[in-house]
Amino acid sequence: MNNFNLNLFKYFFYVVYYNGFTNASKNLNIAQSSLSYSIKQLETQLGKTLIIRNNKNFELTEDGNNLYETLKSAFSMLNQNIDKFDSNNKMEINIGIRHYLSDFIFRDAIFDFMLMYPEVHINIKLYSKLDIKKYEDEYDLLIDFEEYTNLITSNNKEKLCTLENTFVAGRELSKAYEDVESIRDLGEAKLISMLPNKKNGKFQKMCFENGILFQNIISINDCAFSKELIKNNMGLCFINKEFVKEELVSGDIKEIRVKEELFKDNIYVVYKNGKDKNKIRLLVDLLMKEYEGENNE
Description:
D-Maltodextrin-Binding Protein, domain 2, alpha/beta, single chain, 3 domains, Arc Repressor Mutant, subunit A
């Protein structure tokens, strides 16, 4: 049996399964003459007649029927084990990240990871308000502001990056603030608010401490829309530099520098040792590498 060509058993099975040489030939994309020759080879090696042929159809012998039933059982068991093997190798990583952060946290890490592990499905879930209770059930990896991630008990919590905040305005509007030195010089400026709740509290505290009252003309969570409002000179915005990095380079948006030290946002990544902790850890490492050096400030 060690010298048997296993393809001969496969061809025999499919000739019976497709109820004839013609149908089997079409489905397997093999010449009918080749199939017929393969069955004769198998019969010769087994020393048994498996199929009784005539011009229009064929009939299985008792040996042929027994072999077909044996192969059907064997192939079924093989397919089940292959499916089980595939499911063990497939994996889903659920990432939870605040909507505001999603626009600039993932730069190259996700792409690099997907190229290395195409069998892993990345599911990024955006949220505006974190429900801590959902972390254990829904997320393998969570990215959020320090204040929120500190509410989660986990040994696997690492600082991903530090994001700097600044005041910005459109190209034309910024000319009115060229001589600004302090937050106080901004006066009662119109403010486009692109701020998460926790950050909003920090910002309000900073304004209160400096005796500043802004006119908050709009509060918005849509990052693309807020950029357009700023570029169209609708008002000032206290925003994360990373978010408007390209516009600052192009000059469409101008930074208004003040002497006061503005608070920074620490972003943390929290992850679980899930089904495949090595792959999750690798993804974390890729994310950390993107922001290498920023963690050492």
